[in-house]
Amino acid sequence: MLNSSGISIFLPGGQVLRVRVFYHDKCFDGACSASLFTRFHRERVSAEATYEYHGLVHRAGALFDENEFTGDENAIVDFKYSASPRITWWFDHHQSAFLTAQDNAHFLACQQDPVCGGRGRVAAAGGVDGAAGVVEPGAGGPAVAQLAQRHLEESRPPGAAG
């Protein structure tokens, strides 16, 4: 079964897409980001997907437990970058989004790689300073708008009017 954008809403075998949304917990920005991402995903990717939410907090040591990235798609919103191949979507608007130069380099490399970039890892492209690779403060809105526009263009059937 396909949604209105021509994207399958079911996995092989008839399973419904399961999306895990990781967001900055105990933070209004985080809750709003999770809500906006869910709306975008429902309207543009899969109206039938199921969503699970997992709050993240800043702490010493590893910020992410790879074992938590168990969705068919996994999104991180309003939180640090993860180079995990299990992350499908990532949005952030903080200058401190990248903990290491390696994370920053990975993100920038993903911008050029359709396999790594997939649908969403390039989500912050509209808010990224191309020279520094840093997500500009307050750029989350333009980044999401740019992703939505790109997604609409990519999902439009050939020959369809824009």
Structure description:
- Residues 1-9 and 122-140 have low confidence and may be disordered.
- The chain has 162 residues and is of the alpha/beta class.
- Helices cover 30% and strands 16% of the residues.
- It has one domain (18-58, 66-153).
- The strands form two sheets. The protein has a four-stranded parallel sheet with strand order 2-1-3-4.
Give a short overview.
The chain is an alpha/beta fold and 162 residues long.
Count of distinct strands: 6
Given the structure, what is the number of helices?
4
- Percent strand: 15-25%
Overall shape: it is globular
Largest sheet, described in full?
4 strands, parallel
Which structural category do the helix and sheet elements fall into?
alpha/beta
Radius of gyration: 15 Å
N-to-C SSE string, H for helix and E for strand: EHEEEHHEEH
Spatial strand arrangement across the major sheet: 2-1-3-4
Low-confidence region ranges: 1-9, 122-140
Mean pLDDT comes to 73
The rounded distance between the terminal residues' Cα atoms is 23 Å
Give the helix level as a range of percent.
25-40%
Total domain count = 1
Provide keyphrases for this structure.
single chain; 162 residues; alpha/beta; four-stranded parallel sheet; two-stranded antiparallel ribbon; 4 helices; 6 strands; globular; disordered N terminus
